[in-house]
Amino acid sequence: MITKTILKKGYVYILECSDGSYYTGSTIDLEKRINEHKNGLGANHTKKRLPVKLVFFEEFTRIDEAFQREKQIQGWNRNKKEALIHKNYGSLPDLSIAYRDRDIVPSSASGTVIVSDDLVPEALEGTSSNRKINKQTFTSNGKLLLTGEYVVLDGAISFAVPTKYGQSLVIEETEDSMILWKSFDDKQQLWFEGKFELSNGVLKQLQHDEVSNRLKQIFEAVNTLNPSFLKSNKGFKVETHLDFPKNWGLGTSSTLINNIAQWTNVNAFKLLELTFGGSGYDIACAQNNTPITYQLENKSPFVEIIDFNPNFKEHLYFVYLNKKQNSREGIAHYKAQDKKYLRDSISEINTITSKIISSNNLEGFKILIGKHESIISKITNQKPVKKLFFNDFNGSIKSLGAWGGDFILVASNDNPEAYFKSKGYTTIIPYKDMVL
């Protein structure tokens, strides 16, 4: 499976945070992204370490080149990053140390020894240690599909956005031929712990709960895609850390798959196909820091980075419904559609998606998402969520993902918090606070 991507110019940048740590990122709009960081609208690492200042940037002709450079720099130790910042290019080769080889520096506050690692999740920062820790950290963005739900499976051009909430995977190599796995929720509470034995490339689970079964399936798929990965004599301590509640539906599975794919050096889209399945748009969001359009062409993903920055963003909100639903009937009705009728519907959705992306006024945007709801309602034989629950709301509402389940998109001239709270819905997130 090959991902085709239309890419814009990109930048890689390094910020110095108030605590002296460095944050490395990439973007298609440097000025906008730096301002977001400075205003507390960037990554979790920077928003809790304000003020930040830009100390280095490079420009690339393609955003994917900037992204690759970002990952390379993230793998450097502090000394090498500072050599780059100060343009001491001649010293870079001598400072080349693998990402897993961390600097150990004395804490100025206590004299204890801590791991200097700009990318360790906040729950692990400041951890005391008396040895170097072989650690790798991988992060992936959560996702929201704004247009093209259901029809994305049949080639519709769909509009999706990565969220500021995501998941990290922290790997520590060991020598005991075991995988010791711990998963933490957004409150840093342990919600899963499991052990697996490694022997000659074969993974044996030591407990048989649902999560352990799923992890074994994922590693079996990894073994199919990269047979050499599990054949080393090394073991691993693994931790996952969520930024969002598990029931929000922002991509607990897709962020995990993308993180594991990075760790094991396999294609994330193929890994998803062998495990959870689906269109793959959530993997594309996990890998990109900007809004995208996503389309399946001959079952291969086509990703285009887009600029969506409407002047009415302050009138857009995401409301969490907490109404997990069985979408089998809607999917079954969708699959039963006449293919000619479906092609016509997909063509309409594509046109609407294009107009939504280029919208320049709120009223036009409201009309477009209303038309989108009407089309999906007909082809899935489901009532739009506004008619089901919010018929008296003075604004527009669009279902996201499997209809009626997790978040909805709300477009409203007035702040809708009071209305939704009166209906018992208390999680109302402005667009700027949700979308990366």
Description:
With 436 residues, the chain is α+β, with helices and mostly antiparallel strands. It folds into 3 domains: 7-115, GIY-YIG endonuclease, CATH 3.40.1440.10; 134-308, Ribosomal Protein S5, domain 2 (2-Layer Sandwich), CATH 3.30.230; 310-434, Alpha-Beta Plaits (2-Layer Sandwich), CATH 3.30.70.890. Helix content is 31%, strand content 27%. The chain has 14 helices and 18 strands. The strands form 4 sheets. Strands 1, 7, 8, 9, 10, 11, 12, 13 and 14 form a 9-stranded mixed beta sheet that branches. Strand 5 and strand 6 (113-116) form a beta hairpin. Helix 6 (252-264) packs across helix 7. The two termini are 27 Å apart. Residues 97-133 have low confidence and may be disordered.
Summarize the structure.
The chain is α+β, with helices and mostly antiparallel strands and 436 residues long. Helices cover 31% and strands 27% of the residues. α6 (252-264) packs across α7 (268-274) and α6 (252-264) packs across α8.
* Backbone CA Rg: 23 Å
Number of helical regions: 14
Helix content: 25-40%
Would you tell me which CATH topology of the largest domain applies? Ribosomal Protein S5, domain 2
Mind sketching the topology for me?
Elements: E1 4-6, E2 10-16, E3 22-27, H1 30-38, H2 44-47, E4 53-60, H3 63-74, H4 78-85, E5 103-106, E6 113-116, E7 135-145, E8 158-174, E9 178-184, E10 190-199, E11 202-205, H5 210-225, E12 235-242, H6 252-264, H7 268-274, H8 281-287, E13 292-297, E14 300-305, E15 316-320, H9 328-335, H10 339-357, H11 362-380, H12 385-389, E16 396-399, E17 407-411, H13 417-422, E18 428-430, H14 431-434
Parallel strand pairs: 1-14, 9-12
Antiparallel strand pairs: 2-3, 2-4, 5-6, 7-8, 8-12, 8-13, 9-10, 10-11, 13-14, 15-17, 15-18, 16-17
Helix pairs in contact: 6-7, 6-8, 10-11
